[in-house]
Design goal:
Length: 122
Amino acid sequence: MNQTTVKRSRSRGGEITINIASVASSFAENKDVAKDLREQQILPALQQGSAVVLDYSGVDTTTQSFTHALISEAIRIFGSEVLDSFSFKSCNANVKRIIGIVVEYMQGNMDSPIEDTGSARE
């Protein structure tokens, strides 16, 4: 991964800050970059009890697919309460809107039961 700006607190349960623009440029769209951030930085930090600050300074816009790849697995693993461990910093109105759409989508999917549409043969 290219020069990700990550600041990690020295104490367990501290905080990491990831500058999105440093790896995704001003248009955060690459799902592979989001996946790498998720797997290499976000999930390990959450597993250690750290808070995650996603700093969108310098990001003009993002896509739903980038944002989904970045945070949805954490919501699936830890539940929607994991959102209390995230901070979204320096987001413009468009970025806030996209993050809101993804979070709402994920919370809706977690709350609705999965229907069994298969037929059982006796």
